[in-house]
Amino acid sequence: MARPVVELIDICKTYDTGATAFEALHKVNLTIDEGEFLAIIGPSGSGKSTLMHILGCLDKPTSGIMKLEGRDISKLGSNDLAAIRNKRIGFVFQTFNLLPRFNVLQNVELPMVYGNVSPFNRRKRAMEILETVGLGDRWHHLPQELSGGQRQRAAVARALVMNPAMVFADEPTGNLDTKTGAQIMQLFKDLNDKGHTIILVTHDRDVASQTKRQIEIRDGRVKEVKG
Amino acid sequence: MSLLHGIMVGCKEMWAHKMRSFLTMLGVILGVAALGAMFAFMEGMIADMQKFIRETGGVERVTCSSDQIPEDQLAFSSLNRQRRMKDIAALKSNIPDIDEYSPEVSLGRDYPVQHLNKTVRVEVRGVTMGELALRNYEVEKGRFICDLDRVKRQRVCVLGTYASDELFGSYGDPLGRTVRIGGKNFKVIGVLKHYQAGNGGFNFMSWKNRIVFIPLETTWMVFTHNKDITALDIQVKDTAKVAAISQLAQQVLFHTHRHISCLQMRTNEEMVENFSSRTAAFNITLGIVASISMLVGGIGIMNIMLASINERIREIGIRKAIGARNIDILSQVIVEAVLLSILGGVLGVGVSLLLTKFITFFVKENLSTPIVKPEQLLFAFSVSVVVGIIFGIFPAFKASQLDPIEALRHE
Ligand SMILES: Nc1ncnc2c1ncn2[C@@H]1O[C@H](COP(=O)(O)OP(=O)(O)O)[C@@H](O)[C@H]1O
Ligand SMILES: [Mg+2]
Description:
Chain A contains seven helices and ten strands. Chain A is of the alpha/beta class. Chain A has one domain: P-loop containing nucleotide triphosphate hydrolases (Rossmann fold, 3-Layer(aba) Sandwich).
């Protein structure tokens, strides 16, 4: 029996937009188990990113309870949330978001800088994970010297380097051609096979169909599609 | 966060914007340079002033100078007497703490000093043994005027190096030779030490070399035909007592001069104080100049850090997403600001050294040789570091408070 990584109970998120409050998430209940490969789908503006930000501890819900690995985190302060993002959560973005002045190795090492890992172990661990994503020979390149697919691999390596409880990928193939996109999807599948919990945010049904479980979000309400 | 990482990021940023960083640093560079150069010149001035005070007899010397007779005493000012040896006797018998006396008669430059076809006009002064201690002179060759010379009204003289060089420069040793002072023959019995201080060709101690000493009593007999003295200086070796004894001496002389306030005792202490207050004013002025350029430099750093974080909002978002705490972002920006100011400070110290050299090279006259003290350069440098910290705080705080989601969305 797999343990739940994250549990959302009646999560609401309202944005204050001047006169009217806008409810981006309405009473969301969701449980994600260890080792799942989940896709969150929905049209643009439906609340996918909002949900991912809450799941990823970048944002706090307006109401409801969120438990991460059994621990209620709704009331934690910003430093604790930063520590959770650092150690338990990895992000992969549509636009890669690598630091342009840092080479691949330094980019991958960055989470470990904030995680107080010693420089020697940082380097060792970063090289290990770069081998895993197939960039072992490119560690000294700057991001702009790499192709889109390679950049996204570097970003995946950075997300995985602290061995997080779950990895969020927000439209990870959105900026890639179909072939490279497929390769990145294959990388996610391989990582999932190794036991990593992966949550994919996408509006692309073809991409979503490659995952084990899909939920759809519409006007801030979540609906199970397949799982 | 590791400091090393912050430094690395700061260096990368500076390197990526070399010109911008350099221009930002200019304010700090100028501030530190001004501060460093100011310190060097102040040190030089203080050293010269201390030397001057030492060479004129140090703080142990009390000078008795003429004072304006007050208006209510003018009617009977004819009762007043010139300074005479009686004054010395009165001081001696009443104030045992006075260590040395130097009654003098200065003839000014009225009498030419001649040897063969050469003439110099220097001050000719009738003195006693006390002159050596009181005016801090030393004899280089021969001997000084002694009490026997005074008793016997000997026509002997001791030359300062200016007179001896001018008169005997090409004729060899002046000792035992005869010079004419105001047409009278005097035998040279000694030559004083040469006094030299200052920068380049300028010798601000040259006044000390332009002197010829003759015995006090000889001066009376040959030149002035009276027994007046023109200066009456005393020395008190215990510097703690100088002020009190100066007061006491004033009282004694008040009596010997029939209660007419014609004399004023002045200590060199007053000269020191006068000098300190003037250097303080100078320090404040230059301190303000340095502070303003530091302020300008600090504002420049703040400005550039604000621009820099504005360009790197997305980077800050990324860092927060992967686990940077607010304090990590805060310290990162402060480290970057301090790096700018440290580099500015180092360059500023270099520029201050160049500036000091440059000014000494071009302004030779009337300038003390600057003295560069490492601890003062270190101080100027530390000021720049503090400026970096202070002016880095605001941009750093602003950066640390950015919302990670908005920062990530920023283009
Ligand atoms: N900071 C915000 N302030 C106000 N409205 C917001 C904010 N962020 C998102 N929204 C609104 O919430 C809804 C959901 O947004 P989002 O989660 O980004 O959708 P998606 O990622 O599915 O496109 C949108 O209508 C959006 O306009
Ligand atoms: Mg979105």
